[in-house]
Structure to design on (231 residues):
């Protein structure tokens, strides 16, 4: 049995997907779609069991925090959607999902149900889309860190994993932070009972990592969250 099946959080019988589907009706975005997504400056819907943090509180085993969405992600309203990103393959290799999710055309209702049932949530530090994370200003990341702290206090996830150590250092003013488990007392106001990890960026631009090495990080993070039980 995979780790994801063994540790599912569970959902009420009346649960249904709530996120908006891709506005592109199942097709991949073209250049014009990407340009519109960039110009709009808007993010994507978070992946959470319910539309609000209040409703989702206590139902998230692992909150994954990306840096910011790419135009492709915004165009199809799905996280880590750009082809070549190793995020979804690494989750499948780690056993957090049973197969590789193809988010390039958006998430299906079945994908969303699986993620919600397993207590996997996803958000970003910054909502503004860019082609590269290094196009963000420091003040945007710092503001994102403050917002994340407020949301974590409300959401009460079992564990938080930020994807990308460089952005994490800027967002939380910890220039010497390394990947792995963080000392929560080093971050002012972070709830000490909620473990915080930093894992590598799965972007294809990060040549130091492979799908397998990223999967090993997710195995460690998932295990650090402890066993789950249905609410």
């Amino acid at each position: 049995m995979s780790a994801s099946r063994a540790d599912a959080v569970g959902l009420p019988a009346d649960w249904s997907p709530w996120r908006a589907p891709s506005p592109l009706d199942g097709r991949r975005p073209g250049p014009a779609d990407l340009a519109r997504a960039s110009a709009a400056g808007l993010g994507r819907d978070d992946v959470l069991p319910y539309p609000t943090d209040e409703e989702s509180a206590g139902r998230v085993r692992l909150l994954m925090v990306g840096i910011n969405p790419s135009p492709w992600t915004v165009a199809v309203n799905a996280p880590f959607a750009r082809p070549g990103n190793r995020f979804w393959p690494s989750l499948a290799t780690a056993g957090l999902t049973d197969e590789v999710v193809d988010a390039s055309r958006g998430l299906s209702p079945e994908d969303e149900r699986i993620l919600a049932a397993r207590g996997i949530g996803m958000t970003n530090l910054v909502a503004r889309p860019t082609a590269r994370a290094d196009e963000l200003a420091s003040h945007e990341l710092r503001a994102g860190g403050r917002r994340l702290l407020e949301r974590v206090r409300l959401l009460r996830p079992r564990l938080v994993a930020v994807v990308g150590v460089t952005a994490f250092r800027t967002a939380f003013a910890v220039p010497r932070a390394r990947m792995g488990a963080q000392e929560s007392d080093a971050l002012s106001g972070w709830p000490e009972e909620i473990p915080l990890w930093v894992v590598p960026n799965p972007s294809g631009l990060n040549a130091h990592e492979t799908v397998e090495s990223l999967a090993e990080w997710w195995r460690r993070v998932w295990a650090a969250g402890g066993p789950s039980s249905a609410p």
